[in-house]
């Protein structure tokens, strides 16, 4: 079907431009006419006409929507390129607007550098702030417009700002580093630096609170850097030495210099620097804390070295005494503004205790060395060809106790200047070393005694030096309780008392052995018929005893009485031992009578001798000789049991062998009486009283001679 004139008139220019659309429209109209003809020819289908209309409307809407989407996609491909070009054009336009200002930046940079080189810091900083403000303002505008690509272009013009900042900062930190000198010589320069730092701090604070973005290099934090540089200056000037003399004299000079410099510098801070900085800087407190913390670290570094005792003492004294004294942090010029009491100690209690223990170890080594040298000198003096020195009363002595006690006293006194705990540590060490020294001194006496046994002429004044050692020991014993300054802590330990006692006993023993060596040749002559008939044997013994007693008088009275008592006991035991050697048996009653008389005369002579020397009769053991004489003098052997019972009651350490030997000495005791006496002793066992001085227990009785036997069988 051809196109009517009306159809031709309705053809739009778009149809001529798009022939495919015209063709599609013709096909659609033909299909619609065909469908409509069918409907009109079949009336029953007219009822679905409304549904058809609705369906076609929806389909047309869908087609139109797809068409619009297709056309829009096609168009946007060219619009995106146009948008990018438009954005670039806007950015360039923004940059072009500030080009006059950007072109002037390099000229300002050069001028600012000239100002810095001339130390015109405030002017230089003003220009620096102006340029930073310009840069930040431009960057802020670009940031708000989302023109990030233009920021790099702008920043390229301000690359020199970092150099200017670094140059200015270097000058500021040099000034801060010289602040202690400048506040005395040129405070204006220091104040200028502080003003610049405060300007920057305000800019930092403002940007952190208000800015939508932080410009490059912000926040600068120059106030914090000010504190850091000041603290580094303080610590670097005094505490960062690569090598320091830690020996006593060198360390003393170092600590004295620290004391002087710290007081001087804090005085400058308090009187001058405080006026140059804002109050909120709290500069005096900052410097005080810096010195305090640096000293804590410095002392710890020093204590890591192997210090001698003098250096350890100096550190303890300086940290615990000098630091808080009016000579240093308690100086009148610093009070009351400077107060380190709330900063804690320079040395913690643990470090103090550790350092005190190190000090005690060093002192102990020194004391040990000194005592050993003293002992060596003392030992050599024993072999001199002259007697030991005497005091104003004529008592033998040597310098040993004075040297030892002065050394110990001085160490304890010095320790008391630091702390009570150090004093107690040194005191305990002193007692331990004194006890060890007494042990070595005793060993030296033993060695000297061995040398003397080999040749009794060496040492020449052996007895005199033993007596001097007894006086020395007595002096040490009386002085040791005064070592501790506090009377409440003067109790001498039992172990030290025991060491002093052992020393005294050894010297007394060696003296008594010497007396014994001179008595033994005389004791070997009794009992004998010659002695029984009235020889001068006991007189000779008395001469020996008297000679030794005169020597013993060169010791002080307590020791003299001890030696006298022990000598009397020695003489008694030697006399009794000689009687019990089974050398003689009385052959008759007359001979027993002679024996009784001789015993009475000997015991009386000896008793009178010792009484004359000052030993009271009640303290003598010679009474045993008188009691033994009664056993010998008893006329009726049948009464021996009763007499022996009284004897063993008085002398409970006497044994069956002792009594049997005495019965043999009588020469008239039958087997029956002997058996009766020994049976009685068995029925009356004795217990030694607590304070009984043994006499017979040290006397050995010779074993009875056994009959000769050829075989092991029973002898006839």
Anisotropy-based shape: elongated
Kindly report the average pLDDT value: 86
Helix content: over 70%
Category from helices, strands and their pairing: mainly alpha
* Secondary structure tally: strands: 0
Q: Which blocks of ≥5 consecutive residues have pLDDT under 50?
A: 1-15, 707-716
- Give the topology string: H per helix, E per strand: HHHHHHHHHHHHHHHHHHHHHHHHHHH
Strand content: under 5%
Helix count, DSSP H or I runs of 4 or more residues: 27
Q: Over all CA atoms, what is the radius of gyration?
A: 60 Å
Largest sheet: none
Quote the distance from N terminus to C terminus.
Answer: 184 Å
Task: Looking at this protein, list some descriptive labels.
single chain; 716 residues; mainly alpha; 27 helices; 71% helix; elongated; disordered N terminus; disordered C terminus
Walk me through the structure:
The chain is mostly helical. It is built from 27 helices and no strands. Helix 24 runs antiparallel to helix 25 (640-650). The longest helix is centred in the first third of the chain and has 55 residues, at 49-103. Mean pLDDT is 86; it is low at 1-15 and 707-716.
Compact description:
The chain is mainly alpha-helical. It is 71% helix and 0% strand. Keywords: Cytoplasmic vesicle, Exocytosis.
Strand-helix topology:
Blueprint: H1 5-10, H2 13-17, H3 19-41, H4 49-103, H5 105-117, H6 121-145, H7 148-157, H8 160-177, H9 179-185, H10 187-210, H11 222-238, H12 248-271, H13 283-303, H14 309-322, H15 349-381, H16 400-416, H17 420-454, H18 462-479, H19 494-523, H20 529-532, H21 537-552, H22 557-579, H23 589-613, H24 623-633, H25 640-650, H26 656-666, H27 671-683
Helix pairs in contact: 4-7, 5-6, 5-8, 6-7, 6-8, 8-11, 9-10, 11-13, 12-13, 12-14, 14-15, 15-16, 15-17, 16-17, 16-18, 17-19, 18-19, 19-21, 19-22, 21-23, 23-24, 24-25, 25-27
